[in-house]
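Hi all, posting the design record for the shared folder.

TITLE: backbone redesign
STEP: 1 of 1
STRUCTURE INPUT:
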């Protein structure tokens, strides 16, 4: 091979490596809104959206209809890990005051694939629906008992994640139609940790969960976020 051919080959390889390096990786820490059968890690997480199975509660039957698939495809990104768990709360108090310390958001926040470029946290819905204790604002020295309430657990989660995932853009997605107490708490705590907050609006739902139209609306509202 001639010298100029070698140089061209090296140049093209460098371009390829640079292009690959620019592809952002995305991880998701979520609840049922972000689940989809066969696309979760770990695969033992509870699922709301099942692959190709028509259900009266939803019209979503393809992974391509999920908000995150649409967003990642449109942006040319790569999914690193989707650690979403249907029914999960941010705090350790679930429905009927159940102890959910093994599947809450704070139990899963250290399992997002190492070093993603972007992390979407889509939570708070079940804390609102389950009427989990709201608690007080607290930003340090959390006790185990305090993590059974929403505000301390939310602060604990963002404190950990902003320190654990350095140089990662963390974006919190707040569902529409939640009670004011949860909305105000999320706004205050995200502001404290300088975490980007996206408040959803006009999301079409079936059975309380995004329909095909709702998923598209979520993706579209996230596409312009920088």
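Okay, here is what came back for every position:
SEQUENCE:
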């Amino acid at each position: 091979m001639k010298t100029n051919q070698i140089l061209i080959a090296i140049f093209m390889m460098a371009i390829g490596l640079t292009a690959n390096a620019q592809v952002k990786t995305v991880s998701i820490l979520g609840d049922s809104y972000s689940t989809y059968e066969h696309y979760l890690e770990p695969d033992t997480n509870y699922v709301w959206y099942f692959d190709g199975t028509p259900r009266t509660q939803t019209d979503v039957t393809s992974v391509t209809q999920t908000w995150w698939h649409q967003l990642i495809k449109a942006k040319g990104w790569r999914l690193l890990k989707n650690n979403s768990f249907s029914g999960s709360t941010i705090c350790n108090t679930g429905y009927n005051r159940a102890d959910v310390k093994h599947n809450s958001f704070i139990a899963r926040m250290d399992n997002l694939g190492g070093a993603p470029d972007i992390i979407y946290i889509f939570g708070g819905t079940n804390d609102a629906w389950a009427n989990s204790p709201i608690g007080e604002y607290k930003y340090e020295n959390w006790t185990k008992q305090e993590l059974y309430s929403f505000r301390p657990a939310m602060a604990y989660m963002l404190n950990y994640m902003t320190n654990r995932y350095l140089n990662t853009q963390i974006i919190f997605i707040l569902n529409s139609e939640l009670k004011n107490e949860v909305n105000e708490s999320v706004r205050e705590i995200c502001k404290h940790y300088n975490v980007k907050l996206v408040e959803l609006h006009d999301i079409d739902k079936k059975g309380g969960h995004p329909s095909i139209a709702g998923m598209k609306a979520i993706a579209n509202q996230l596409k312009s976020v920088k």
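COMMENT: The beta strands are 25-30, 78-84, 118-122, 169-174, 196-199, 205-206, 209-210.
Let me know if anyone wants the other runs.
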